[in-house]
Amino acid sequence: MNIASLPELCLQLISSAFQRCRASDDLCRLSVVLRRSPPSNLVRISVSDTGVGSCVEEFEALKLCREAFGGEIWDGLLSVTTTGFGDNEIYHYEFNLKEAVSARRLTRLPSNPKNGQKFSGTEVCLSVFESVDVLLGEISRFFQKILILKIPNVAIQLVAEHGDVPGSRYESVFLANEWNPLPFSASNLERLKSGLEDYVFKHGNTLGKKCESCFSNWEHLKVGTGVACHTESRRYSESAMEAVIVISEIPELPSTCLRTYGAKTEVLYFKDFSPCPISQSSVKALTSIDWKSYGLTFGGVVEQGGYALLKWDNLPPYVQIDISLHHYHNQYPKLSRLKMQPDQKLVKKAVKFALNDLKDKHAGVLLSAHALKVRDCAPDLAKTISSLILCSNDSNFREECFSFLGLPFQGVGSELVEDCIKEKIISVIDMNDREQPQRSKEVPTFLFEDDHFQDSGSQDEEYEGEDAFTSMDI
Question: For the chain, first and last CA: distance in Å?
């Protein structure tokens, strides 16, 4: 992995520690300590975890962009202490990441016996000339995003100390299941969904709990999920892409809340259970989606520091759309050396599944411009049909129509009949406002349906035909 900046190196070390905790069957602690040593500006960074032990290869794979790491910032040395649960010793290494010759990068230091104790963990240390506040801001935002994954067995501690300055100690604890907990048996998709809901409720996880000013109840959120999978092939390993889309709508912005609204959506991207910049292939996939068919006017993508912001030209006031994507191997640890499938097709399929899921769960949401135009005709059409029914002299015809509408034959006014027909028309418009699947054999939806004409064997065959991808849940 190529590292282009000091904050990026820190986040990579933290990400590796998080993976070691996630791979453990026990509850784990991940600690990051930033300590400035006066009178110089030298900052000692310690990243420690109680997960499974680390391996030499993960540090040897780190490659620095030499232009970004001058000698005045960092000498290139990493001190690593690690042990596995089944090891009899605690191992010490020193890596010089600035060493061009790979054989000279690693120095093995004397190990210490564990004297029969059973534990595991890793600590990585480095000393740099950098602002504690800069590092603290980057790491805090990283942890706020990693909480979206809601990995239940990892408690995170972040500490910053400015030497001997009184009252300068900062400490924060990040717990995935502290608010709105999930059972340990929850799937990855259930965790991602719940985590993004929490992220929205707590305004980017900057609050300790739900903002009651904006979200007095759960009805303010509409959520859709989608999964696209790639089965293992000769070239690529088995992987999954999960997408969660949250639409939050507040009728009136409370004056006591600092929440900012804008016609932009930050795409929160995760790869193998770690926040990371979104890939170019994912950006291309998002731009290729027919957003108009979901009633959204896409205004392009703004890329800032590897993160993508989707712009909308027609988003109503006080409406926010949040999107989270997670691409990961289905097996951990990764036993296969096969590459992960490029995510462009997976992103497009997973996002479209999530959009369709939103439309299925919430009537009238994400309707296309065409459907909205047809909807405008529903009142007049309902009035016309109602008049035809009520003006008919055929009592059998009227009785049959009332039966289809679910209304009693006697004592029903024209307004009730008209409203009932309008609701059915709108319902049919909403149900048919979908992207028509190719090769679909689905029975069309009728305004008045009779159970005798339902085909119980019809199935939605959307996206079938590509062996590599399925819509199965994880």
Answer: 28
Between the alpha carbon of residue 171 and those of residues 34, 46, 393, the distances in Å are 10, 14, 80
User: Per the structure block, which two tokens stand in for 295?
Assistant: 């009633």
Q: Compute the distance between CA of residue 142 and CA of residue 172 in angstroms, rounded to an integer.
A: 13
Alpha-carbon torsion 209, 212, 215, 216, what sign?
positive
Select from 269, 296, 410, 412 the least CA-distant residue to 350.
269
CA-to-CA dists, residue 35 to 78, 132, 159, 162, 436, angstroms:
16, 8, 8, 6, 58
Instruction: Name, in order, each residue with C-beta under 8 angstroms of 194's C-beta and a sequence gap of 6 or more.
Output: 150, 180, 182, 186
Q: Using CB atoms within 10 A of its CB, is residue 352 exposed (0-12), middle (13-18) or buried (19+)?
A: buried
To the nearest whole number, what is the mean pLDDT of the chain?
82
Q: Mean of the pLDDT values across residues 16-24?
A: 92
Please list, in sequence order, all residues whose beta carbon lies within 8 angstroms of the beta carbon of residue 213, skipping any fewer than 6 positions away. 254, 256, 257
> CA–CA separation, 428 vs 36, rounded Å?
65
The string of DSSP letters for 203-241 reads: TTTTSSS--TTT-SSGGGEEEEEEEEEE---SSEE-EEE
The one-letter amino acid code at 271 reads: K
- Count of alpha carbons within 13 angstroms of residue 473, beta-carbon side: 7
Omega before 152 cis (within 30°)?
A: no
Order of strands across the sheet with 298-304?
A: 298-304, 307-312, 264-271, 319-329, 239-249, 221-230, 469-470
Q: What is the pTM of this model?
A: 0.79
Higher pLDDT among residues 255 and 221, named by residue: 221
Least confident residue range of 179-183, 293-297, 468-472: 468-472
Q: How many residues does the chain have?
A: 474
Q: Residue 182 class from Cβ within 10 Å (0-12 exposed, 13-18 middle, 19+ buried)?
A: middle
Distance CA 19, CA 122 (A): 12
Asked if 301 and 309 count as a contact pair (C-beta separation under 8 A), the reply is: yes
Q: How far is CA 273 from CA 136, 189, 328, in A?
A: 21, 12, 7
